[in-house]
Structure prediction request, 384 residues.
Amino acid sequence: MTTLLVVVVISTAFGSMAFAWIRAKRMRCSEVEENLKIVNERVEQLELMNRLLEASLNAVPQGLVVCDDEGSDILRNAAAQVFVEARHGDALVEQAIHEVINSALIGEPAHRDLDLIGPPQRMISVSALPLSERNHRFGSVVIVDDVSERRRIDDVRRDFVANISHELKTPVGALGLLAETISTEDDLEVVQRLSRRMTNEAFRVARMIDDLLDLSRIEADDGDKTEAVSLYQVITAATERVKSIARDRSIAIDLHGVGQDLVVFVDERQLISAVGNLLENACKYSDENSTVKVETSCAGSWIEIAVIDSGIGIPTRDIERVFERFYRVDRARSRETGGTGLGLSIVRHVLSNHGGEVHVQSIEGEGSAFTLRLPLGLGKVDEI
Ligand code: ADP
Prediction:
């Protein structure tokens, strides 16, 4: 009996121990499963982050190269990939990448500017920065940037400022001299002549400032003032602007070739300014008592406005350059006519703002035809 009791007690004890062990084992299994689930989720998150990071780096237009502390590539985005085993200019970029990495590896930030002849001609900037954490260097990052457009804009801006200063210096200097001469002059006739010249110079400065303001307004315009307007109205408004110049030189402006029912979708003020500038030039660079013609037509999906004169014309070598700011074929003549050299830049800008183009045909001594091409308007004038 005692023996039986002992057996029962022992087997009960064993039974509960086994039960506890199984329970503990089951619990550990579910804990492991739980942990495995967390690890899997974390891996998925990391994979997603990795894909996002890779896509983001590939979306960056600059080339990015990340290296370890021995200078071996750890990561290259798509823009930097093109330099690997490249030829010509891109091979020089790859060489510069290695040079700057070598500097960054010894803790020195480095920079190289490459002037690649092309074509296309490019300016590439290559910079490297050491990567470190608590005085421990663990690699470097290289940034490769195509700065050609930025440099070009900087150059244009610098030239523009230099040109304005030069253009304003002449009339302002003349004004100073004239004022000084007048102050010591007793002869009334001379004083009157000098004061007329002063007025002319003052007008020249004012016109230059007006044209500069016009140009900067047109350049900054975001095109939100476009509306359907009658082309005939635009041309008559532009003609009105040059009425006094035409009258002074007895020049007739013939609008018989202007269609009365054409509509253009434009910034009216800008187009009046463009046509006005062409008409002003046509009057300025034509003989007295001549005629300037304006014609309009539809050509495919374009509307064309032509301003035709039979004036002095433009030499072939200058035709390409007349749209540049401050460019004049004949400085002395432009000075005489009060030109600023900005009129055709304004015209070109207006047309580019409207998705259009400007063309010129000219024969020296025979005349010029400037044609503005605009995308076709919305319909007929009675539909406005
Ligand atoms: P400007 O104020 O000097 O007229 P523009 O930019 O309007 O400046 O024109 C640039 C140059 O192009 C002028 O100086 C002139 O030499 C030439 N030009 C423009 N239009 C004509 C034209 N219709 N006939 C002859 N030359 C022209």
Q: What stands out?
A: The mean pLDDT is 89. The radius of gyration is 38 Å. The chain is about 55% helix and 25% strand. The longest strand covers residues 122-133.
